[in-house]
Amino acid sequence: EILECMESNTKPAVITPTQLHSYLMDKTIRVSMSRHQTPINLYHLSDDGFIDAADSIIRREVIQCFETIHPSHPDVPTIGFRCAFCKNAAHRAPYSSFRPRSLKTIYRDFLRFKSNHFAQCVHIPEDIRGRVALVHVRRERARQGRQIIGSSTRGGGNKAWWVTSAKKVGLEDRRDGLGIVIARGDGIRN
């Protein structure tokens, strides 16, 4: 409904900020990938239900992709990820950017970013921190409730989905194993 209204320039009854952001991010990613440019972030519309809600907020609103050159192989730019809020700041908290060696290491590097940077970066807006904290509180309450009745909970999300999602936004491993690149879409791998 939202897509139809936005495409036809009519006004729907209600559009939440999250719906609008998701729509715009999806359009931006598709347009940028069609021009062979760097995608905006790791978030994909199909992430919901596969990735932890708090991690999804950080993926969608905090982490930004950027291209970087590997010193020994300057021919093909690789993809790195950074905090969108402190990328131009003179002083940044530790681990403000990371360059995974492969799609499989994105999740591990993200966890380092989350624990070493997200927790300390003074440039990340409080409303984002608040939403992430709220997800954690709700999850902890649910976990406590399940422990009372004898159930267990699983946190974190589906690690394999991180690879699938990265492919969905147009990323792939370099053939030489020196990082992540933008999929060219012409059957030729970098």
Strands, helices and their partners?
Layout: H1 2-8, H2 17-34, H3 53-61, E1 63-70, E2 73-83, E3 97-98, H4 106-118, H5 126-148, H6 159-168, E4 171-173, E5 180-182
Antiparallel strand pairs: 1-2, 2-3, 4-5
Helix pairs in contact: 3-5
Largest sheet: 3 strands, antiparallel
Distance between the termini: 38 Å
Widest β-sheet, arrangement of strands: 1-2-3
Helix vs. strand class: alpha+beta
List the secondary-structure elements in sequence, H or E: HHHEEEHHHEE
* Sequence stretches where pLDDT stays below 50 over 5 or more residues: 24-36, 148-155, 186-190
Query: In percent terms, what proportion of residues is strand?
Result: 5-15%
Anisotropy-based shape: globular
Give the oligomer, counting copies of the same chain as homo and different chains as hetero. Answer: single chain
Question: Mean pLDDT across all residues, rounded?
Answer: 76
Give the radius of gyration.
18 Å
Number of helices: 6
Compute the number of strand runs.
5
The residue fraction in helices comes out at 40-55%
Would you kindly provide a written description of the structure presented here, covering whatever features stand out?
The structure is a single chain. The radius of gyration is 18 Å and the shape is globular. It has helices at about 1-10, 15-35, 55-60, 105-120, 125-150, 160-170; strands at about 65-70, 75-85, 95-100, 170-175, 180. The chain has a three-stranded antiparallel sheet with strand order 1-2-3. It is built from six helices and five strands; from the N terminus they run αααβββαααββ. α3 (about 55-60) runs antiparallel to α5 (about 125-150). The termini are far apart. The protein is about 40% helix and about 15% strand. With about 190 residues, it is α+β, with helices and mostly antiparallel strands.
